[in-house]
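thread: overnight batch results

M.L. [08:02]
morning all. the overnight job finished for the chain we discussed friday. pasting input first so we're all looking at the same thing
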Amino acid sequence: MKKLFIIIATCLLIVGCKNTESEVAGQNEIEEIVGRGYLKVGTTGDYRPLSFRDTATGGYWGFGIDVAQRIAAKIGVEIQFVQTSWPTLTDDVMNDTLFDFAIGGITITEKRKETMAMSDGYLNNGKTILCRVADTAKYHCVSDLNRKEVSVMVNPGGLNEKFAKDSLPQCTLIVYDQNEEIPTQVAIGNADVMITEITEAPWYVQNDPRLAAPLISKPFTHGEIGVLMQQGKDSLLSIVNATIAEIKSNGELEKLKVKYGLE
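M.L. [08:03]
and the structure it wrote out:
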C-alpha cells in the first residue's frame, strides 16, 4: 500500500510539472507576441472574399483578414500578414518562425486536427461549383460533373483538388496554379467548371455576370472555416476562440457576412 501511494504521488507530481510547463509555454507565447508588438498571420491571399492580396498595394483584405484584425486587437498588438499557399500550408504552419496562425478559407477537418490545432468555426462552408451562365442547366449533381467531357479546374494542394480527385475521377481534371484566376478561366471557356466553396462563389457571381453558381444552395459537403495553428498553442487558441465567440454574440460576424456578400 505504501509503495502504491508513492507511485501515485510521483505520477501526480510529474503530471503537475507537465501542466505547469505547458501553461508557462503558453504564457511565454503570448508574451512573445506582445513583446514583438505584432501578431504574425499566415494567409494565402488568393481566396476572395476571405483573403486576398492586392498586388498593387501589397495589402490584404477579406472576411478572414477582418477576423484576424479582431484577434490582434484583443491581444493589443498590430498585425503582420505573411503569404502562404495551399500546397505549403501545413509545412508553413508547423514552422515556428513563419507565423503564429493561418487564416482565410481554411476548412476544419479531422485530418488537420490530427497534427495541428483548429479554432472553433466562424463561417459555414461547403463544396460547390462555378460555371458559365449559359451552362447553368447542365449541372444538377455530382454525377453531372463526373464525366470525361466535363473539364473541371481546381487549385493545387487544397481540399478542392482532393474533392475533385476523390469524387470526380471520370472528369477531365485541370490543376491550375493561380486560384484567383480560375473563375476567369471558366468564364472565357478554358474549363467548364471550377470546384469552389459556398463562401467564395457568391463574390464571383456578383462581380462577373458571365458566371453562375447553380448548386450553391445544396453544397456537396458541409463544414466550417476556422483558424489553423500548431498544437500546444493553448493560450493563443483560447484568445482566438474567445474573439470568435465575441464577434458571434455582438453581431459583428453578421455584419461581416453582409459586408462580403455572404448573407
